[in-house]
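the three lines:
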Amino acid sequence: MTVENAIAATGITLPEPPSAGGNYISAKTVGNLVYLSGVISRDEHGVITGTAGLDRTIEEGYAAARACALTLLAVLRRHLGTLDAIHEIVSVNGYVNAVAGFSDPPKIINGASDLLVEIFGDKGRHVRAAIGVSALPRNALVELQMVVAIA
Amino acid sequence: MTVENAIAATGITLPEPPSAGGNYISAKTVGNLVYLSGVISRDEHGVITGTAGLDRTIEEGYAAARACALTLLAVLRRHLGTLDAIHEIVSVNGYVNAVAGFSDPPKIINGASDLLVEIFGDKGRHVRAAIGVSALPRNALVELQMVVAIA
Amino acid sequence: MTVENAIAATGITLPEPPSAGGNYISAKTVGNLVYLSGVISRDEHGVITGTAGLDRTIEEGYAAARACALTLLAVLRRHLGTLDAIHEIVSVNGYVNAVAGFSDPPKIINGASDLLVEIFGDKGRHVRAAIGVSALPRNALVELQMVVAIA
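prediction for all of em together
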């Protein structure tokens, strides 16, 4: 089954991919790697804001990380034409807007990792880092950066 | 027009490239990519210090990010001999020393992105992430990391 | 002398490599690069926790960064079979759990850089970034991410 078919089968709908808000671009192919700009957590209501350990729970963070991954897939579909062009997910860097001492960034970034494996299977397994930071664009709860390999 | 000519035409002068302060190096070529160490914001008076949202404005941050990009170009010129060896800018990671909840890291990192496009044109467009962090070396206002592709 | 022999000669023992705690993997080879997941600081007693500038000194941070580098080498040995397969260390990103305004992340990440050069010599010299962040997994003092090139 192709990835596009897998997405259709799950009923997952990708969001509209965002435009870059400055002199940068959303995706760049170099050789067989596609580098992606960091995207912030959004849903149909707008930016998912807040701070883990302050006014946001781990569950809300998990949903925000999943939303970031969906946005990155939307960016990739626009960039590549189809997600079936992706050979594998290489790396994910997840940044969580968090209070000092918040010890669960991984439980939040799991929202992205789980989605990628749900859609891509073993090829969706990636290396990653999960970091808590003091400030993200538009006060987003999560920012996610990714590199993927194409065939 | 070559990039070196473009820089000369704008009157931009690159700073002296910094030396690595430990057991690491400023730049490393692997295949057709050049990976660069993070550099902190400096001008002719020394390190540009401070914290966005506390004692530094967005405009000061923008200038600090631009200064980082100039420093990275100086590192690249030393590493490659000439900036004309650069095929394109691939990625920029910008870290802003920021108070918790500062929502404008992108407006600061634009200082780097705008400079890269000013000098390299479309080949200067890159993917990027803009993150606010609690602490940077020597209390710098901005740290910038970059990857470029060579011909 | 091979790297494995060099390690044996120094008496350094690598720790047990950690398992990935979710839908991600510890290492992934793409072309001649091996990307590694971020690892947190641990020793034989468990996670090395704490915050630089609050309850941890630079010396404790240096030891924690060195411990992260040892863990990453253990991951690489498991992934590649032998550390002799490594051609060179490419990049290191070091994140330090730090109070706002802590100005010495590089002195802490030197613990990793020094170890890599101790073991790999000139091939261990890498590009790097050292960043202070507000929160790391399990309240770890240091998290380290690395990319290496293989022959």
